[in-house]
Write a structure and sequence with these properties.
heterodimer, A: 266 residues, mainly alpha, 77% helix, B: 272 residues, alpha/beta, Rossmann fold, six-stranded mixed sheet, 10 helices, globular
Chain lengths: 266, 272
């Protein structure tokens, strides 16, 4: 079901991006967690007072109750959404559509390897990358929180929260992968693979501002990932994370089936 | 026994482009030359054989296996040189060949070394930095290194210098001797003439002629009989022009080259 030679090659191709995004995440997570300090909280709260819409649009709300709440406010609204999402977009497009567009898919298709094996391997590469990135973020969060505030963090809650985050990114990866499988032209693959998640994120930002714009939340899948709900232990929040996961499985499966059946202009 | 078989293959891209009701077969151990101008449908036909495209109607089989639904089984026995070479730019030639061997799960070392030597290719540089000819050589090595029984070669000598072209022609001749089945598209008349037993000519997506290379020649041979004033003159004339002398009469035949035959089928008309 999976071709190791291809998997190894593609994982090598992911490393550079993983290192870059890993470094960015390390920087932000360590800075933000170290900012957790009652004194500093006041400064951030004052930002929120001065420009509540702007801060809210990127998911930052005032008066987070504890360290995890603080992390949810300042990390799970922007940094931990955007960077793994960028990874999905860049790799998702490169794994299938770029090869078909450039013609180098010939080398993969002109071999006794089933097309579904090719697609499944590429999917595994994308999923492995997402998994590594979220796992790495979790470790960085743990290290920063434990070194700065040994008593403050509930590890189990952090794991559940990041499990939800993983489901969200698997879903985003699914959109990118499906679009990569459907389109033989990088132009369209990127337009849909990057366009849909980016548009959904903008809707989420709008919804966060509140007022009439809050209705936008019904039109974006980001609503299904509710970090506040997950750490409050709401079953609806957990259920919607599962919906994301199930959606992701469907998107990947659909992508593989489409790639198996389509004409390759190579 | 025919190994490669195409029956009534149709694929209409609109605007007169595509292939329309193409049928031909290639027998076991035979080399088939597939001639046609650019855009005639050679590559489209080959993509169907490779299982990249699904026939809109008609059928392609290789050794009885359907080229679309059983393509992975077909591919195990195929060697393919694509018409447009595009490999992974980020790899060196060596890495690419090693990757392909690992990807196909085969051991190819001896054969690979021999082919690299034959084509004087040093694959250590990045594919991105390679010239067209080097990439073409790399494509040839990648297609032949696993010793396939069936070879599908889409304009295999484009970008090669005359010396390398002739080495390639020799390689194909050797493979044919070893009983390989070969389908080669080309617009190099000479190489087709030298290597192929039968030739199919395609134009605007339709097969216009399929025949043995020899028969195509014969059909396009014209002979003239001239009468000269003396037998001595007739003898001299026959010797100069390679004719057959019969008293004062000499019969001379002109043999059109394949190139001229080709022009007969296409000459004067636009193809696009």
């Amino acid at each position: 079901m999976i071709n190791m030679a291809l998997y190894k090659r593609e994982m090598k191709g992911s490393i550079k991006l993983l290192i870059i995004f890993g470094a960015i995440i390390t920087m932000y997570v360590s800075i933000i967690i170290n900012m957790y300090d009652p004194q500093m909280m006041k400064t951030l709260d004052s930002f929120v007072e001065v420009m509540p819409e702007l801060m809210a649009s990127v998911g930052m709300k005032a008066n987070a109750a504890n360290l995890l709440g603080f992390m949810v406010s300042y990390l799970y609204g922007f940094i931990l959404l955007i960077f793994p999402m960028l990874f999905c977009i860049l790799r998702g497009n490169a794994l299938i559509a770029k090869y078909v567009d450039k013609g180098s898919m010939v080398s993969l298709a002109a071999a006794p390897v089933k097309r579904c094996t090719i697609a499944f391997t590429q999917m595994k590469v994308l999923v492995s990358g997402i998994l590594l990135l979220i796992l790495y973020s979790t470790i960085v969060e743990l290290i920063c929180a434990k070194s700065g505030f040994p008593e403050e963090l509930d590890i189990k809650e952090l794991f559940i929260l990041n499990g939800g985050l993983l489901c969200l990114h698997l879903f985003i990866g699914g959109i990118c992968f499906l679009s990569s499988c459907i389109f033989s032209d990088t132009k369209y693959s990127v337009a849909f693979g990057a366009g849909i998640p980016a548009f959904m994120y903008v809707l989420q930002m709008l919804a966060n501002v509140g007022g009439d714009a809050e209705k936008a939340k019904y039109f974006t899948f980001f609503t299904l990932f509710s970090p506040d709900g997950i750490i409050a232990g709401k079953s609806s929040a957990i259920a919607s994370a599962f919906v994301l996961f199930a959606g992701a499985v469907m998107l990947y499966a659909l992508g593989i089936v489409i790639f198996e059946k389509k004409d390759l202009p190579i | 026994m025919s190994v490669i078989k195409i029956e009534n293959l149709v694929r209409d891209y609109g605007g007169g482009k595509g292939v329309f009701d193409i049928s031909f077969h290639v027998n076991q151990g035979e080399a088939f030359g597939f001639l046609g101008p650019n855009g005639a449908g050679k590559t489209t036909t080959i993509r169907h054989l490779m299982g990249f495209l699904k026939p809109k109607s008609g059928k392609c089989t290789i050794d009885g296996l359907d080229c679309w639904s059983e393509r992975d089984k077909v591919q195990a026995r195929l060697g393919y040189i694509p018409g447009e070479i595009s490999f992974f730019d980020d790899m060196t030639g060596t890495e690419f060949l090693r990757f392909i061997a690992e990807y196909r799960k085969i051991d190819t070392r001896n054969r690979m070394e021999e082919l690299l030597e034959r084509f004087e290719l040093d694959p250590k540089s990045k594919i991105k930095k390679m010239s067209k000819g080097m990439k073409q050589k790399l494509g040839i090595v990648a297609a032949f290194m696993h010793d396939p029984d069936i070879l599908i070669l889409d304009e295999p000598t484009s970008g090669l210098d005359p010396l390398m072209q002739s080495r390639f022609v020799n390689l194909v001749a050797e493979e044919k001797e070893n009983g390989k089945t070969i389908l080669m598209s080309s617009h190099m008349f000479e190489e087709v003439e030298r290597t192929c037993d039968r030739i199919g000519i395609i134009r605007n997506g339709r097969m216009v002629a399929i025949d043995s290379a020899a028969a195509l020649h014969e059909r396009h041979t014209r002979s003239y009989t001239v009468t000269l004033e003396s037998e001595a003159a007739a003898k001299a004339f026959a010797a100069d022009f390679g004719g057959i002398c019969n008293g004062k009469k000499v019969t001379v035949a002109t043999k059109q080259s394949l190139e001229e035959i080709f022009m007969n089928y296409y000459g004067g008309e636009k193809n696009d």
